[in-house]
Specification:
Length: about 500
């Protein structure tokens, strides 16, 4: 992918002691350090409200490394090198008079600077105004924001307009961490570098596509956040629609930010809106009840810690989506995501069409087409199920199906770490926006989700129920079975 020339070596991390920072970003910096990917000049300033010295901050970060980096990858020298890059600034982001502290801390740091907002979106405006007030922003500064960008179309427009007050679109890096995952990036290579697939990649060769992001974890102590959001806004609006875009987009004319983003925008524009008429057949929402995962009893959604007795929030969604364009007309895209399901599985399943005439076993009418499974979790792999003749002289009539697999962790000796943040952090430093979302993508995705949720509210369809530890409600099975398909388990 094309890189713009300016490499940044000054990085400010707002919310440096928050969950996102400690669980994901700090370990990602660690793995980059371990791989010798970071320039010697790189400096990271942690910003948070707690009154800490630099040494106390470093101690907390060391604690996070011990907790969130897999012990087999922990190395004292790497920790020391990373800690040596860190400095700390205590700043109450809501108080304009705190920002001169930040200015002071950044005295002598090389410009331009990347500012990563690992904080609540309600603070974005104050931080941008605060940075502006200390005259620290230049046309080359970068600002990084995480999902959720709003909770509906209106609020996301508001956030975008606040960011655009001080930054141009080319300075804004909107993260969807799924795009940093190795297999997701490999999807682009698979589709556009392999003629075997590119020649089949349309309604001519493909019967259906399924995207599943199932998690076995529940809501636990995130109830307060999640109950106001639900699975549609938490997962579909961002991760699931991004996967859909990458699987369905046209080949970009260049593999750069503009090329990729404009093709993704076209997919989102072609998504058939889910109006009231479609909801009944094509949309299922559900909530998990008490159940069992790996032999352990787990509480239902409304029995989780800090939960209220009743809630209409969905923890599971399945959808049959349609892309109304020349390439995909007639191909169903089945989307499914839920919390507290049987296992953590994130995968895209491409079902190819079968050949018209079946010659192997005349009693069977038809052979199912080949299946391509692109797995993001539990493995990072791509596997194509192909038919072969079973071994032996008597077995020449039937066929067996076996996977031809590429496991990236084994073949490319990848570290077994499921976060996509390493590559995204490098892209921020190097100024490559290809894997970050543009304003239009975020807003189109909200528009589609808002519309579906609105139609669902108006419809008579109930919120179904599924036992924790299952693959979702029966209605989700029926949604796909009515087309003669089954979820790939
Ligand atoms: C986050 C959601 O964006 O993605 C969480 O807010 C979800 O609810 C998480 O658990 C899943 O990410 P991953 O990388 O573990 O699949």
């Amino acid at each position: 992918m094309s890189k713009s020339p300016e490499n940044i070596t000054s990085f400010v991390l707002f919310g440096a002691l928050g969950d996102l920072s400690l669980h994901k970003l700090i370990p990602a910096w660690y793995y980059l350090e371990r791989e010798n990917m970071l320039s010697d000049e790189l400096k990271i300033l942690g910003v948070a409200r707690q009154d800490l010295t630099k040494e106390q901050f470093q101690k907390k970060i060391l604690g996070a490394l011990n907790s969130f980096v897999a012990s087999e990858y922990l190395d004292d020298d790497v920790c020391t090198k990373l800690l040596g890059r860190l400095d700390y600034c205590c700043c109450d982001l809501q108080r304009p008079e705190s920002y001169p502290n930040l200015e002071q801390s950044l005295k002598g740091w090389s410009k331009p600077i990347a500012y990563y907002l690992a904080i609540s979106p309600s603070l974005f405006e104050q931080v941008c105004d605060g940075l502006n007030s200390i005259n620290i922003l230049t046309s080359l500064s970068r600002i990084v924001v995480e999902k959720p960008i709003g909770y509906d179309l209106e609020s996301s427009k508001e956030i975008n307009s606040k960011l655009l007050k001080h930054f141009t679109e080319s300075q804004i890096y909107r993260i969807d961490h799924y795009l940093g995952k190795e297999t997701v990036q490999n999807l682009i290579a698979l589709r556009f570098a392999n003629s075997l697939f590119s020649s089949q990649w349309s309604n001519k060769g493909i019967e259906s596509i399924e995207i599943t992001a199932a998690e076995s974890v529940g809501i636990e102590d995130r109830w307060g956040y999640f109950d106001g959001v639900g699975q549609m806004k938490d997962m579909v609006q961002s991760h699931i629609l991004q996967l859909l875009c990458l699987i369905a987009m046209e080949p970009p004319n260049r593999l750069n930010d503009q090329g990729i983003r404009s093709e993704k925008v076209k997919v989102l524009e072609s998504l058939k809106p889910l109006g009231e008429a479609e909801i009944e057949k094509n949309f299922v929402t559900a909530q998990y009840a008490d159940g069992e995962i790996l032999g352990t009893k787990v509480p239902g959604y409304t029995n989780e810690k800090n939960a209220q007795n009743a809630s209409g929030t969905e923890t599971f969604v399945s959808i049959k989506a349609e892309i109304q364009n020349w390439r995909w007309s007639g191909v169903p895209f089945y989307l499914r995501t839920g919390k507290r399901m049987a296992s953590k599985t994130t995968q895209i399943v491409v079902q190819f069409k079968s050949d018209g005439h079946y010659i192997f076993d005349q009693k069977r009418e038809k052979l199912k087409g080949n299946t391509l499974v692109i797995s993001l979790h539990p493995t990072e792999s791509i596997s194509l199920e192909v038919y072969t003749k079973p071994h032996g002289v008597d077995n020449n009539k039937g066929l067996r199906s076996d996977p031809m697999s590429l496991d990236f962790i084994k073949t490319q000796k990848l570290l077994n770490i499921p976060s996509g943040y390493q590559s995204l952090l490098m892209d921020i430093l190097q100024g490559d926006q290809s894997l970050f979302l543009c304003k239009e993508e975020v807003e189109l995705a909200w528009q589609w989700c808002d519309n579906a949720l609105e139609s669902h509210k108006k419809s008579d369809q109930e919120l179904y129920c599924y036992p924790a530890g299952s693959n979702g409600p029966r209605e989700s099975e029926l949604l796909i079975q009515s087309d003669g398909h089954r979820w790939y388990e």
